[in-house]
Queue: 2 jobs
Job 1
Amino acid sequence: MKTRPKKAAALCTAALLLFGAACTNSSDDKSDSKGDDGKSGNVSEQIDDVLEDCPDGSDTAGIEGDTIKLISSYPQEGALAAFAEIAKGYNAYFDMVNEAGGVEIAGKKYQIEVEGFNDNYNPPETTEIISKEFGPEGKGAFAAFSVVGTANNLAIRDDLGELCVPNIFASTGSPAMGNPDYPWMIGSSLPLYSTEAAAFAEYLKENKPDATVAMLLQNGEYGDGYEQSFKKAIEGSDITVVATQRYDAGLATDVSSQVTNLANSKADVFFNGATLLPCPNGMTKADELGWKAIKYVSGTCASKTLIGAAGESADGVLTASNVMDPANTDWDGNERMKTFKDTVSAWKAKTGDDGADVTNGVVGYGWTLGELFVKALENAESATRSAVMASLNNLEVASPGIIYDGITVKTGENDRFLSEAAKIGEYDLAKKAFVALDEVYDFEGGTAIPESLID
Amino acid sequence: MSDQTVTPPNPEGALTVAAPVRSKPTATAAFAVLVMAAALVLPFVHDKPEDLRLLSLGFIMGIGAMGLNVLTGYTGQISIGHAAFYGIGAYITANLIIEQNLTVLATLPIAIAVTAAFGALVGLPALRVKGPALALVTLGLAILVPTLLLKYGSNKGVALWKPKRRHLASPVDSLTDGQWKYLVPLVALIVVYVLTKSLVNSRAGRSLIAVRDQEVAAATAGVNVTGAKIASFAISAAYCGLAGSLSVLVRGQADASSALSYFQLSIYFLVAVVVGGAATVAGPILGGMLVQYLDDKAPEWSGNKVGMAPFILGAVLVAIVYLLPGGLLGGLRQLVARLRRPPSAPDPSPNHTPATSEVQP
Amino acid sequence: MQLFLNQLFNGIEMGAVYAAVALALVLVFRTTGLFNFAQGEMAMLSTFVTWQIAQAAPILVAIIAGMALSFVGGALVERTLIRPMEQKGNPLGTVIITIGLFIALNALCQLIWPPSRAQSEPFSMPRPWPTRGTIEIAGAQLKWFTVWLVAILLLECLALYVLLQRTKLGLSLRALSSNQESSRLVGINVGTMLMVGWGLAAAVGSLAGALLASRSNQFDVSLMQFILAYAFAAAALGGMDSPLGAVIAGFIVGIAEAMAVTYVDAVEGIPIVVPLLLIFFVLLLRPEGMFGRKVVQRV
């Protein structure tokens, strides 16, 4: 949606005269009058404002008997299937909770059930699934859960917003998920792309303060997010971005030409903001070209399969993340890591799901989401959508799931982002795992939503 | 009974069909009217939104398939890129609703006009080549259009355009949204069907068929071959553009995110034409609805097993072309003809002519 | 200069792949006059089969075995699916069958080798040659992979040339593409030749697939998906009935794409427009391609 100032002004005047109501940028639609002030504020209040416009009975929809039904949508086929691992993590957690009797909300116990659908990472398919599963009144399930992809979540936020359906733990690091115009939506514990960029920028300031940086980015919101956040984070320092190249997620996975162009800049740093297969392909190509640079990869690429696909060129690669890498045997002594691995292994044996790999960080991320959701449910005043959203926006959990010690997941009145801290990890080829550096780069409460990413 | 002239096998290619004849349409016409009436009444009797939605999408697929059929079944030019026109129609409608606040119905004439013009424009150079080379060009179109829409028309890097729900809601109080979204495509389908039938039975229609069967002879006989091809391309483009526009009403969005999905849709149209019956007017409607149904249900049947849905579709396609070259409708016709014919009469469908259907609804 | 050379090498590398697949397309067209839309997917299936064999045998053996099996497979497809449709005089039907195959084969691969497996053990194709890494030329890096790829492609072309021009089998194949009826009259077993034509194409495709798969650390069912558009562009540009044209055009397409990505801003992120535009212009200005024969229609 493009903002048209002139048109908005005309509409505003008309609306004012006709309805005497305040007007927002987009149109005179009543359901748009949420979060008028445009600033992040108290989500509960924002939701209360719009509850009356919601379809009747929407607040208690999606709970059948004692089962809370959730819908998820993510790619499951072929090369895109790396993201399907998230579901294994949270399904294992929910199974554990369900077996123990369920989660308790306001004195009553509930079972949690998630149904996942394949959308091929393709936003129009995501919207179809959501539209079909939730139905025209939005009552087909309690909430959308861990929908994967920046563009995918952006595509469904209007429909879900209008129907007052929560979109919980949108699996994307885009700061746009904290947009106050959409109080029913909340991002996940995945480090924000801006946090990643800022953490890496800090690392560079400490280790190579005059670095030149070349960036490989995906066409669209996801790539733009990285570029803007990183440029903002290096403002005032001697670090400069000397080249950027984009690739199109939908067409082919070969980024040789783009990386060749980037290598030509002879930059000190290769910021590989690609995800899925273009990421390892980019790493391999950079090596082939003999480009000696500090290499950084997006947190979304730090999964076992994708890093594994880069083979030897993954050695020494840096990333920013907030979870311990389960592939790193150094963490095996950690209580939470043990619980995670044991439970998922048991779940795997029980369900016969061969794909669930306990050494895959993506599964660990899903597991963390499971724990966070259950905690939020326990803290909710009632088993209603508005109460659960209020709870999610008032969360404080120290090191849930397999998040590093020392990092707390926190949301609050002006902070709709779960995790704004990360550690830099360096990939060790011998260990086939990321080894974390000690420093925690904490930007808690400091993330502002870049203007251009809000509609 | 009707006269049937049997044409010799066509070295040029394309499905061979008996020359069009006027035969007694009363029984089939009555049947058609009955079906239309039933379809119109359905949403008031059975108001389940999912079912109505599936049927609406089927109608839309049917319109697109009918369009492709004008080009492929009747003019003998193959295209595997018609989803491009569908996409353009959808894009125009979605953006006109979003930017200009037009109603869906108001955008239809514009979408039709633009896609027809675009079809003619593309047809001009494209139709200089024949057969597989043309297929190749149209394939290129199917990839090029979404790619360009994504790059130059996109909405912050996302090639998805969604009008607000209320703009797609029913403007008539007595109709629910679901009923409205069902009736508009249905009415469009009926109108298009009637138009197509008259086109096919007209002189223009016969020119198209002549071009398909014996292009050189047609030229010699005075048919403007190039003009016929281009017109046919434009008309088929317009149908697909209309289908695309209507899809915005039912799906709530226009998208160009994936060239692959455009290719797949083009194939669906082709499958619908072939499966339904390429040289019939109603066949593609049947084919379109079937394809839509399969596309929707296949994931369920296969238990969400990855790859099952396209496998079924591909296998069905091969099977039908093999076993029922006249498509379902053609096969049905043959069956009816065989049942009607007295046992001693010679078989009027020689082995080397695959589809033996007259031009009928 | 270094950038230019690097991109040139990129172009040659991909060009070799496009050329290999285009060659398969042309072989089919030349012998049977048909476009095989399923060529890429057949090659993809062959690649998976080759991979499966490579789990138990050395890679070279696997590749050759894969090619042999593909030969048989291609011949069978011709005999069971294509020929009967051809005999009915229904070329539209045959095109549609190849399209149906395109869809079904891809799905079949996903059913037999489920992608979920790849999460824990990716499908990885070893390279059939010993050298790795790159050679430095004037500051640019030329991958050994590219060198071997091109070498194998040229060897393949040579082998095909010898086959087509210097053997009796080749003569029969060429006669077939020129005039089927007459070939039959002079005693050529048309049926067998058709099968050989498709079999050869399938084998060529199998080799192309195996080599392409070995380019990255892992491959999956989307291996050939977009290659098809490029291969068709190359085949059209070169002339649908000219193997030499296909190979040369393959390189042209690959290099054009690499150059466009580097020097043309408008193409950023969407390099696929390059082969598409090439197709349009070729067919507009010279439909028979660079080396093809002009088709004269008999009335």
Job 2
Amino acid sequence: MADLKDFKPQTVDEFLNGVESQISADLIGVWNTQKSRLERNLRILGETTIRVGALLATEQISAAEADAIVYQQEQLFNATLNHIASLPYIAAQTILNTIFKVVGWVIFNYSGVNLFPALVTP
Amino acid sequence: MNLSHSRSIRPLAIALCIAVSGCVHVLSPYDKMADKKLSTAAEALLDLQAETQLAPQPLVNSEALQARGVELRTGIRVARNMYEGSYGSSVNEGHRQLIVSTIDACDNAVRSFFEVLAREGSISDPATDLMLTNAHATCLTATERVQDGK
């Protein structure tokens, strides 16, 4: 698993690679079969995460606003994962945590603001 | 009257009906109503986004704005309730859950925007843009799920 402490993607593709690098070995099989169904959401999430990090860093948005924006994405992602009937609950929750750990680190690395203290421990 | 000819027409007509219904989702009046409510909410979010882009100042909380939020969310919840009530029991359970959770995501996205606005007193232009874009995309996803039919 790659270290996220210096992970600061400039593009959505870099973000997606970062997410993939964090998927644990026991979930990689599930991930590979499901990722095409998640790609649309992941791209929107990646774009939003990079924008939120940059906007927070330049103080164009507040931490509360950033938190609300990321929360919206989390809700949408949760709903998407719920739709995949073949995905066990534990696997869905682990994937959700992994993705949002990456989101948390990216925003922290851009701005110094930690929106996910439970997932991001600098 | 040529009976053998009339007999041959019916299976052909049935086969055509099956072929057509396989391609086109027949939506119930409930689905159509839910689709309308969610589409209206999605349009209202775009309208709000356009208004804020034209305004020179960040969006400031007001009773009028919160009333628009309440109206928007009422429409979304009417759509949701259709799948929670007796009509919901006639829909395939997996599909019903899928619709309800997506409508919930749409409702939550709208709610979080108006909650931030109320709590913070105002909301910056970039945050407004991102939050309303997200909410709009989520509500459109909900309409797609409803349009998938039973």
